């Protein structure tokens, strides 16, 4: 099993069970996760993005035992973000980057996002776009962060050959025709915010499994909740696990 959505460091507003890297790795291993794509909570609000990414890479190396793959933060609203992207690809050898447009103040129709996506595609990097990090109702009253609108992505995917995009924390808000357009355009989505009894079974019936990935949003979400989605889906959990792993390998491989 490959978990494409975990985070290291501290959530800015409260402590979480599993927010120590060794503890999170132990939780993942107990559940049979062999690889986890890790971003950093520090990437939301810190301005020293180079420092955020260096710490993330070091924590993955020290505590991951080969399980944690770092996905660096890039903020195209900050000066010299192209250098942050270069460091992620060349110096830190990361397979991708994780973006938080809601926290960084841009929309996906922003020219800088298109430039970032184009440069990432040229470097063979996966671009993870977090549409949100938490339910709107639980946000701190002084830090209200809008949910990111993914509508511009199908056009960008058509314009940028080789773009590899995964949406994180999307399935509470993106549904039905909007989701189908994204998937048909080649965008991948993970399941951490999928809701409803047998929700995964219904989702597979709508869009198939080719663009679905496993994601837990741990430690912000309880890890077990993601696995429960597989177990109560009404589908073969073994086949789902195999499909999720194959899709993650395909995304990293650019196919």
Structure explained in plain terms:
This protein has helices at about 20-30, 50-65, 80-90, 100-105, 110-120, 155-160, 175-185, 200-205, 225-230, 235-255; strands at about 1-10, 35-40, 70-75, 95-100, 125-130, 165-170, 190, 210-215. With about 260 residues, it is α/β, with parallel strands linked by helices. About 45% of the residues are buried. Helix 7 (about 175-185) links the parallel strand 6 and strand 7. An 8-stranded parallel sheet has the order 1-2-3-4-5-6-7-8. Helices cover about 40% and strands about 15% of the residues. It has a single domain (about 1-255), classed as TIM Barrel (Alpha-Beta Barrel), CATH 3.20.20.140.
CATH class: Alpha Beta
- Report the principal-axis shape: globular
Rounded to an integer, what's the Rg over CA atoms? 17 Å
In CATH, the topology is named: TIM Barrel
Total number of β-strand segments? 8
Quote the beta fraction: 5-15%
Total domain count? 1
Q: Stretches where pLDDT falls below 50 for ≥5 residues?
A: none
Q: Which strand order spans the largest sheet, edge to edge or round the barrel?
A: 1-2-3-4-5-6-7-8
Q: If you average the pLDDT, what whole number results?
A: 94
Helix-strand topology string:
EHEHEHEHHEHEHEHEHH
Q: Can you tell me the CATH architecture?
A: Alpha-Beta Barrel
- Percent of residues in helices comes to 40-55%
Span between termini: 19 Å
């Amino acid at each position: 099993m490959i978990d494409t959505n975990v985070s290291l460091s501290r959530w800015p507003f409260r402590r979480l069970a599993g927010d120590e890297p060794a503890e999170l790795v132990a939780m993942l291993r107990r559940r049979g996760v062999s690889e986890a794509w890790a971003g950093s909570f520090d990437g939301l609000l810190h301005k020293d993005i180079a420092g955020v990414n260096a710490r993330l890479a070091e924590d993955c190396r020290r505590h991951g035992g080969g399980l944690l793959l770092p996905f660096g933060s890039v903020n195209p609203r900050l000066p010299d973000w192209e250098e942050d992207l270069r460091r992620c690809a060349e110096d830190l050898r990361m397979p991708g980057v994780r973006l938080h447009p809601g926290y960084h103040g841009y929309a996906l129709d922003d020219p800088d996002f298109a430039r970032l996506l184009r440069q990432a595609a040229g470097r063979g990097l996966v671009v993870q776009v977090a549409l949100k990090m938490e339910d709107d109702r639980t946000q701190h009253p002084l830090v209200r962060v809008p949910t990111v609108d993914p509508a511009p992505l199908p056009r960008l995917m058509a314009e940028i050959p080789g773009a590899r995009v995964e949406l994180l924390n999307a399935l509470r808000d993106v549904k039905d025709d909007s989701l189908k357009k994204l998937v048909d355009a080649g965008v991948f989505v993970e399941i951490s915010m999928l809701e409803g009894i047998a929700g995964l079974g219904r989702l597979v019936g709508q869009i198939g499994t080719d663009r679905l990935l496993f994601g837990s949003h741990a430690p912000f979400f309880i890890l077990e909740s993601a696995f429960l989605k597989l177990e109560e889906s009404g589908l073969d959990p073994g086949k789902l696990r195999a499909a999720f792993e194959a899709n993650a390998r395909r995304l990293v491989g650019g196919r």
